[in-house]
Specification:
The chain has one domain (4-141): Roll (Thiol Ester Dehydrase, Chain A). 15% of the residues lie in helices and 44% in strands. The protein has helices at residues 4-8, 57-73, and strands spanning 22-27, 31-37, 81-93, 102-113, 116-125, 128-141. It has a 6-stranded antiparallel sheet, with helices on one face. The two termini are 27 Å apart. The relative contact order is 0.21.
Length: 142
């Protein structure tokens, strides 16, 4: 397992917007599996929703994007670059994610042409799909 210190060597996000806690596996340039430990103290739970905390779907998508970014930015030729959203397609949210959940994030890069690519993304909790879809990314120089 790689922790936040190793993750921060590859992707530019930082707390409070670093949305992955651990990398379990990475096939450089091809796929990654990460985890987000959803804590009651997360900044977004103060307003989403008081008394009924639910992780926003857009932040689940961001967690998946950061997982994919780790895979693609781990390539030596992409070191020092950033991966930005180019699109979110076919994203479905199937299960609410709440404090105490351990979100498993898996992204496979399914196509890439130049700086543009697509990742197939699935987020699960205890083996149940919480979200899945396709994420388009664009690599840029920083």
């Amino acid at each position: 397992m790689l922790g936040k210190e190793e993750i921060e060597k590859v992707i530019p996000q930082r707390d409070p917007f670093l949305m992955i806690d651990e990398i379990e596996e990475c096939e450089i340039g091809k796929s990654a599996v990460a985890y987000k430990n959803v804590k009651e103290t997360e900044w977004y739970f103060k307003g989403h929703f008081p008394g009924n905390p639910i992780m926003p779907g857009v932040l689940i998508a961001e967690s998946l994007a950061q997982t994919g970014a780790f895979a693609i930015l781990s390539l030596e030729e992409n070191r020092g670059k950033n991966a930005l959203f180019g699109g979110i397609d076919k994203m479905k949210f199937k299960k609410v994610v709440v404090p105490g959940d351990k979100l498993r994030l898996e992204v496979k890069i399914i196509k890439q042409k130049g700086p543009i690519g697509v990742g197939e993304a699935v987020a699960t909790v205890d083996g149940k799909v919480a979200a899945k879809g396709e994420l388009t990314f664009a690599l840029i120089d920083t």
